[in-house]
Amino acid sequence: xxxxxxxxxxxxxxxxxxxxxxxxxxxxxxxxxxxxxxxxxxxxxxxxxxxxxxxxxxxxxxxxxx
Length: 66
Known about the structure:
By secondary structure, this protein is mostly helical. The protein is 86% helix and 0% strand. It contains one helix and no strands. It has one helix spanning 2-58.
């Protein structure tokens, strides 16, 4: 009986370690995703600023209806 309890305790410890590694991996992926999303927001903001500047420059041109 003691051997069974020791074996079960070892298996439980192994499973707990595997769960811990999995959770750590998930946390790393979530962190990378957060950084990528923040980069995307920064790029989108920069593109929007450039578009607004371009719109301002284009608005200076006049087109005739000939």
